[in-house]
Amino acid sequence: MDLKIKNKICIITGGAKGIGYGIAKLWAMEGGIPVVFSRSMPKEHDEELKNLCKSYEFYEIDLKNYEQIEELVKKVATKHGGIYALVNNAGANDNLHIENTSTKDLIKSYENNLFHYYAMAKECLPYIKKEQGSILNIVSKTGITGQGRTSAYASAKAAQMGFTREWACAFAKDSVRVNAIAPAEVMTPLYEKWLQNFPNPKEQYEKIAKAIPLGHRFTTIEEIANTAVFTLSPLASHTTGQILMPDGGYVHLDRALNWDEN
């Protein structure tokens, strides 16, 4: 299937590892040009993206530096003649609970997880509008269901979903599509690190996997990337304002189905 993204520029924040890297890699494999904005880039990932796409670029960036965001977005647009798509992805669950988190720390968490989604979209939009392109926000099921003891992260993710629907409304007249993907349980490097907080990480993993209706397994990075790249592409030309949940039915079905393991 031709996704019609050949030579189209897609900026991916946090595209050095995990879900972001999976999206960058598939964008390149499908003929697009991924541009990664991240604090660092593993050498092996950098080399793989270069092998897949000669025009691929990596820019080291502090996403809390809004002047740097403005500068680098303009640089990318000038060099490549435009920007077709943006994937807002960077961020991490910092487990900040209301009972032990100050307002100052809450704002700091929003700087890490929320404000740069707004800043990146603001700077990219003039170029995306010219190409009638697409924005994809990577959010989280936590922003829908809550998790307990993650007030900062859960509220940031909920706000990202608000951005998604607001921008979809605001820019439909410009034929710009804005969607979000809300992953649930995906084995990323950050998720592996989180599992180590438990006395028995393997047992905790198996407990979570058992609750996922479709296959009793975690969603893969590749499955998230497949959904992301298709949704960004012109083939999803009438899809906007959606919160997509490729999660094996975890959020919507796990409480409705009574699975018999025997």
TrEMBL record:
Keywords: Oxidoreductase. InterPro entries: NAD(P)-bd_dom_sf, SDR_fam. GO terms for molecular function: oxidoreductase activity, acting on the CH-OH group of donors, NAD or NADP as acceptor; quinone binding. GO terms for biological process: fatty acid biosynthetic process. It comes from the Bacteria. Pfam families: adh_short_C2. Belongs to the short-chain dehydrogenases/reductases (SDR) family. This is KR domain-containing protein. It comes from Campylobacter jejuni. The lineage of its organism: Bacteria, Pseudomonadati, Campylobacterota, Epsilonproteobacteria, Campylobacterales.
